[in-house]
Amino acid sequence: MAGEPQADCLFCKIVAREVPADVVRETETTLAFRDINPQAPTHVLVIPKVHHPDAATLAAAEPTIAADVLREAGEVASEEKVDGTGFRIIFNTGSGAGQTVFHAHAHVLGGRGFNWPPG
Ligand code: 5GP
Ligand code: ZN
Predict the structure, then answer these.
(1) pTM above 0.85, yes or no
(2) Which listed ligand is nearest to 8 at the C-alpha?
(3) Ligand 1 nearest atom to the CA of residue 92, by list position
């Protein structure tokens, strides 16, 4: 069922603490942890604790939790002190756009310069 933990989902396992992660923030509805393969000096993933396959389906099903993810992305940027210089919040959506873990997540990237358009 939408929102229920999925047995085969890596990020549901991180929420359940079955897989370890370097957690930087936690709220009732979200978890933020460092990406295992960082692409910038700050690279934190912010996820909803509930399982939805991507950000768009999360926002359609549970918009207040989608807003929680966005707010937490901002809090991470502030705590990591990358909000002054600018940072990216990225939701890769679909395998063609580079999504590899199908549990909604925001990448918060900062601490270096960024190009536009992204690759
Ligand atoms: P996506 O490619 O789906 O947008 O992002 C998935 C992200 O999860 C990737 O940046 C990848 O490095 C990260 N990732 C994959 N496995 C793990 C893991 O076991 N722990 C952590 N902390 N990050 C992971
Ligand atoms: Zn999941």
Answers:
(1) yes
(2) 2
(3) 4
**pLDDT tens per residue across span 76-96:** 999 999 999 999 999 999 999
d(CA 49, CA 16): 9
Show the tokens assigned to 13.
């396992």
Q: Domains of the chain, with CATH numbers?
A: 10-110 (3.30.428.10)
**H-only helix segments in the chain:** 10-15, 55-61, 63-79
Q: What are all long-range contacts of 58-67, with beta carbons under 8 Å and residues at least 24 apart?
A: 58/104, 61/2, 61/3, 62/3, 65/29, 65/30, 66/104
The CA 39 to ligand 2 mean position distance, Å, reads 22
